[in-house]
Amino acid sequence: xxxxxxxxxxxxxxGVAEVLRINQDSIAGKAxxxxxxxYVLDLRDFPGDPIQDKVVHDVNIIVNDPEIQIVVETMGGVxxxxxxxxxxxxxxxxxxxxxxxxxxxxxAELIALAREKNVNFLFEASVGGGIPIIRPLNxxxxxxxxxxxxxxxxxxxxxxxxxxxxxxxxxxxxxxxxQEKGYAEKDPTADVEGYDACRKIAILTSLVCGxxxxxxxxxxxGITKISAADMKYAKKMxxxxxxxxxxxxxxxxxxxxxxxxxxSPEHPLYNVNDVFNAVFxxxxxxxxxxxxxxxxxxxxxxxAVVADxxxxxxxxxxxxxxxxxxxxxxxxxxxxxxxxxxxxxSSGEDTIxxxxxxxxxxxxxxxxxxxxxxxxxxxxxxxxxxxxxxxISVIRVGQ
Length: 399
Ligand code: HSE
Hints:
Elements: E1 2-7, H1 11-22, H2 24-30, E2 35-41, E3 55-56, H3 59-63, E4 68-73, H4 81-90, E5 94-97, H5 100-116, E6 121-122, H6 134-140, E7 146-152, H7 155-167, H8 171-180, H9 189-192, H10 195-209, E8 219-220, H11 228-236, E9 240-250, E10 253-263, E11 276-283, E12 287-294, H12 298-314, E13 338-345, H13 349-356, E14 360-362, E15 370-373, E16 377-378, H14 379-386, E17 391-397
Parallel strand pairs: 1-2, 1-4, 2-3, 4-5, 5-6, 8-10, 10-17
Antiparallel strand pairs: 7-9, 7-11, 9-10, 11-12, 13-15, 13-16, 13-17, 14-15
The structure holds L-homoserine.
């Protein structure tokens, strides 16, 4: 029986213990005789919980126990997770984490350390929760050059966009509902400002290009400015508004961004609703592929963590290579990115046409304003032209 430790007994950590219990027998068959949690590291105690006797408060107990081969990190945040994970790898233990902040920031370094120590650092659960996407990119799709990855990578905001579209509600009302249902945090900033999706697309882009993509370099817009009026226009245009995290290869290099997009029913992500996530991948020889499922939540995310544990159990004596060097990749200039823009304005049709030429005008029946869709143009060109209009809101238009 392989002995493991779980660092952080919150939603995901307790889910990992639960998945190992629920599927104990089948996991034993797949993972070298089974995996048993020996320690749970947390600041708290958990009286009455099945792991109550395994709780420790000192990380060194795990570091110094040679019996522990696999460590799960489900604490969240960069510190102290980084210090603890580094100590585990240095002690020759394998690590799996669900922590996107840690992976986006320190992934390259921790992979290199794992390689040096001939152990594994896996992180399937850090992007898309229970949806397999890291392993497919790292093994199943290695014959391809990935030309595009576009995902709905945040369940909270997708739930909010779906509810606003279906019920005509304003952002604040839908946020309150998401918080009541436990989908949104009390402080929802990371989700609604797009920061969570930004870290996830940074991880995917790093894997695709094999180099370090700094999340700080990715142009990121959240959904806080999306209103019920925007949804009215989207409905009139037969489109849905989705927060997309996207990365594509262009002549100027990789272009990555997070922003709301109006997408048509033909777009592969159009029907991804509620808390579901999906990742669309285009390979130069594969063509198009889609990965869809539960992108968050206790058991789906724990399922991905435990699958990493099983993978580790099958590779206890060898390092599973992951191409992600710490050499930084400079992303393409965002100002040169070409997009189509939907604009709401209080300026008249004549002014619109003077500035943007023959634009498609949309009237959603809202007094004192009109909407229109531009031709394809660069972000820089759009910024220059739109500065001459009274702009109410702007949303990019996808396929
Ligand atoms: N808050 C995140 C989401 C959790 O809504 O997708 C998973 O990273």
